[in-house]
Amino acid sequence: MRGLASHSGSAGRSGCHRPCAATHAAARPRCPLLAAAAGQQRRGPCWQRAGQLRAVVDEQGTVEQQDDDDEAGPLQQLSEARHVIVEPGFTEAAEQLRGVFDSRFEDPRKTTRERFLWDYWFVENQYCLVRTQAAAYFPKALYKRLESDLLAYGERVLGCRSISPIWMSYYVDGCAQELHCDSFHGPFAFVLSLTRWEERAFTGGETMILNPGTLNFWSGFVPGKGLELTDIVTLVEPRFNQLTLFDPRLPHGVRPVRGTRDPMKSRLVLHGWFTEPSPFIEGALEPEAAVESLNAALDPIFEELELLPAVLGTLAVRLQISGADGLVSHIGFLADTLVVRPGQPITDDNGDPLPDPDSAARAAVHHAIYDGLTAAQFPPCEGGDTFVTYPFVFE
User: Domains of the chain, with CATH numbers?
Assistant: First the structure.
């Protein structure tokens, strides 16, 4: 796996950061992203496709072209926005990680250095929990295994190659996190649970995440229809060895824990953030050979994005490049947290409001990226196919 380091490049006026590919970098580099340029007046995009080919998405998120003899119609979204992802059975190291914690708390009268690594974090009306840095708590080899599993997942699913330092926290009676946002840490937050959920001796402890519809409450308001907690927030139980990822732009927290005061029976989680998404390459093609072709394909994409309604979030895509002819044979959408910036007039070519402007705007962004990357031409490579992951970050 080889990184594509960033160099100074232009940021689309749509607010899409361009982490341009340039040179071969060390594995999992941090790739600083560029500041967005000032906005400009946008002309109306094309909302319909009239070609003989159409883009379709399979169950794995791979986009391909198929013949389409049907009449032209509205552009369809090529990726579903996912602000919460739950992955059960995440790592084979879970039992070992939990075992280290248990061994240091099973005898409360035993005094060891590791028992004094904890910080009781209390902020009035906001945070109450007991936390430590996982890198300082676990044996080095075990921590590296945990870190490697998270980074591999980030590469494969999120298009991210970096993570923040990992925290470990336990919640006993009275511990909680009130709703907050911490998106400045990175585009994806994660919680890996080491909680024996089925054996818990407490109530509460679920991760709560405000639903996107709640943030856009009045647009979907139905008079006479009541709402309850689960209509307003998503509750995620911290089941053992379950990885929960979510968009940290959404207000989130932890429901108050009531019951046990025993750390061995507490809500126990590892948590942190996947940080700046970075372009990287895997396969036979040398990074230097891919850079020129990739940048040539990106230039018209960024020009097109400047003309589209502004969106916010991250869209990571993976290209499969045929070694035989250098053409892009598959495009997969990995992670998609795009939301349309509110307050924009989004109309059709006649200036009339669209029935679903947010879906239309997201679809236009998807197709601008898909069409531009499909047209890319890379050098053939006798060593086989190559995969390039590229994140588009909109701010």
Answer: 2-76+285-394 (no CATH), 84-274 (2.60.120.620)
